[in-house]
Amino acid sequence: MVLGKFFRFLFDSILPRRCRKCGQILTNEGELCEKCLSELNFIYPPYCKKCGHPLTDSENSGKMLCAVCLSRKRSPFRMSRSALYYDDASKNLILAFKFMDKTENARLLAAMLKVAGEDIFAAGADVIVPVPLHYTRLIKRRYNQSALLAYELGRYTGLPVDCSSLVRHKKTRPQVEFSGTERARNVKKAFSVRHPEKLAGKRVVLIDDVLTTGSTLRECAVALKKAGVRSIDTLTVARVC
After folding, report:
1. Contact in structure between 21 and 32 (CB atoms under 8 Å)
2. pLDDT, tens digit, for every residue of 28-51?
3. Cα(46)–Cα(60) distance, integer angstroms
4. How many CB atoms lie under 10 A from the CB of residue 113?
5. For residue 69, how many other CB atoms are within 10 A of its CB?
6. Which among 195, 127, 192 is positioned nearest to 162, based on CA atoms?
7. What's the pLDDT tens digit per position in 1-32?
8. pLDDT under 50 in the chain at which residues?
9. Residue 225, exposed/middle/buried by CB under 10 A (0-12, 13-18, 19+)?
10. Reduced to 3 states, what is the DSSP secondary structure of residue 62?
11. What are the chain's domains?
């Protein structure tokens, strides 16, 4: 233990730890400086117990369901949770991880997912599945950010991670180019399950970085349901509210 602390001190002296968001040298424990941590807007209760959408005090009537979930008879998801609001404070952290090779951010973001998904894991989960990239985009980007999140979350929770069964067989344009119903059309029938026997009867936790309209996650759910999964929960780092 003493030797480990010595080497940690020596390593930090040569290569001091820096904030994952602003790059400032850290004087405190953790992955973010106090300023950047305080700027992040975490999603706390009250939120819809089903879809995770934040509720105002006036909306929190005791039923703990948002208006959409109250009116919707069926949903492909058991629960959906997100750690952060997707805003100026969280955007740089997530985009640097997704597009700028800041893969070291995966550990920090997965820790946020573990906290945000506390009630999902308490309800029971069997396997973590990331939203897949089409192989052409994976070659171009060199890594799937959702898969990195899934592997780190698997380390935190002890749950197995399956990155091979759910595949994106249809090459689609980036969702950021679309809005509303166009997003749903863009990813329609884009996913399938290559090894349904691995997921049949399992409680799946579906992982992605940002929830915007939910079109991608819903299309993944369609494929997973066809494969016979028992239930699907979604966990994202942030959501557009």
Report:
1. yes
2. 778 899 999 999 999 999 999 999
3. 7
4. 25
5. 17
6. 127
7. 444 454 444 445 456 788 999 988 887 778 89
8. 1-4, 6-11, 13
9. middle
10. coil
11. 1-39 (no CATH), 76-239 (3.40.50.2020)
